[in-house]
Amino acid sequence: MSGYEAGGAPEPSVARRVPDLAALELLLAVARLGSLGRAAKAVGVSQPAASARIRSMERQLGVALVHRSPAGSRLTEAGGVVTEWARRVVEAAEAFDAGAQALRARRDSRLRVAASLTVAEYLLPGWLVALRAARPETAVSLQAGNSAAVAAQVRAGSADLGFVEGPDVPAGLDGAVIGHDRLLVVVAPSHAWARRSGLPPAEVAGAALVLREQGSGTRQVLDEALVPHGGLGAPLLELASTTAVKSAAVTGAGPAVLSELAVADELAARRLVAVPVAGLDLTRALRAVWPRGQRPSGPARDLLALTRGAGP
């Protein structure tokens, strides 16, 4: 009767009925070297520990395996039979280990990363340089898109690790906050807002802004922040990249809302001016994300370790 003896008591599992690999390797060493002491040294344990392991295996199997004498140790007849079985088990375990190593090597040979545009343009290059130094054998591919697209790629299995912006971990994924970023309202120096010491949130909500597209982390954070202030109005322009939004703002098309990371150079050169908005929290989390229940390993784990404390 599978799993139960005739009386109904559960049978011991195979793992409890079969000696472990360490014990089987010790038995093979005794057969090969003819001495329990030499076998103990070969497998890296003390002789008392080796004797105890052999006795435990004999009790487990219910037969004597090794005959000990002043001249050395030799296998009993049962020990010879068990040794042949042990050899096949150990060879199978070695083949299993070699296969697992091959799988790890294949995993470690490539890393597929998907990242939001802000992270891809302003943070990932430095991380990837550091990863290259630590893992020169790993080929890295990077796909950049908005946060919604990144989450979809990770869920679909086309990216091993993703980086997104926004208030929450996307559905179906696990993640960790790796840093924070801040959105800024920016205008060209010629814009009327450039001379303002601050703006009320309602004025920002009602203005025609140059914005990222729906699905971007930047747009999601701005949308949610302005809900208590009347909600975001119709955009002046809706563009699919940070660079395009920034260029439009620099040329004076209208106010824009962009990551502090993205506009640092323009602010320093006075090509753009940041306008404070009183009482509006535009801080956002930067997150690494991965498939639910699958903690990053190999190169993905190493890249994740390099990202801690990201942001301005």
Automatic annotation (TrEMBL):
- Residues of the region (Disordered) are 293-312
Q: Which Gene3D superfamilies match?
A: Periplasmic binding protein-like II, Winged helix-like DNA-binding domain superfamily/Winged helix DNA-binding domain
Task: Tell me the ranges covered by the HTH lysR-type domain, including all copies.
Answer: 19-76
- InterPro entries named in the record: LysR_HTH_N, LysR_subst-bd, WH-like_DNA-bd_sf, WH_DNA-bd_sf
Q: Which SUPFAM superfamilies match?
A: Periplasmic binding protein-like II (SSF53850), Winged helix' DNA-binding domain (SSF46785)
The UniProt keyword set, sorted, is:
DNA-binding, Transcription, Transcription regulation
The UniProt transmembrane annotation reads: none
Name the source's superkingdom. Bacteria
A Pfam family of the record is: HTH_1
Q: What PROSITE patterns does the annotation carry?
A: HTH_LYSR
* Family according to the record: Belongs to the LysR transcriptional regulatory family.
| Name of the protein in question | LysR family transcriptional regulator
Q: Which organism is it from?
A: Streptomyces synnematoformans
